Amino acid sequence: DGKLTQQLYETLRTLNVSGYEVVALTHTTTGRLSKKDQCTLKVSDYAAEISDASDEAVVSQIPARVGSSSPDTEKKEKQRHIKKPPRMKILSRLTLIAQQADDVASLAIQGIGSSYDIVAVQPESAAAFEAACEHGVADLISIDCSQRLPYHVSRKPIEAAIARGLRFEICYAPALRDPFARRYLV
């Protein structure tokens, strides 16, 4: 619906105060894209609001000096000794789990990918992998290492993807959490 939930808003504030400079909010979908997959969240509108709220949160957490004369003096004293967190950049990301080559082609046909800052394709078949590498309609090709790949990765499509400026993303966090899935990582 284009709005942040309160929990997500608080998480983004915490990340900003912790020093994160860039965060991507991901929408994951499977199969062909449709109009409902269009990015409706205007993330740039929230970056300033979150940064301002984070500034206030950091200032309010600093203890006042003992013997300060007034609340205004205390606040000025706090602000003088604090380094404000940088304005965090929030990006939108689409991850398309592609089961067929046509799923990858739907990125170009629908034009939905252009509404996101980052577009990733996670191929689940050899045809989808080759289409993602050869068409270059995404920014990233995401490889899920928590399960055995149902296809063989060959050198030719990888070289074609690199020549087009695509990057590969290895998703290994789920494999680290699950000892059974860890064997597919190696």
Automatic annotation (TrEMBL):
Annotated InterPro entries: Pol/histidinol_Pase-like (IPR016195), RNase_P_p30 (IPR002738)
Region (Disordered): 61-83
GO cellular component, one term: nucleolar ribonuclease P complex
Keywords in alphabetical order: tRNA processing
BP-aspect Gene Ontology terms: tRNA processing
Molecular function terms, GO-annotated: RNA binding
Gene3D superfamilies for this protein: Metal-dependent hydrolases
Subcellular location field: Nucleus
Family of this protein: Belongs to the eukaryotic/archaeal RNase P protein component 3 family.
Name of this protein: Uncharacterized protein
Originating organism: Octactis speculum
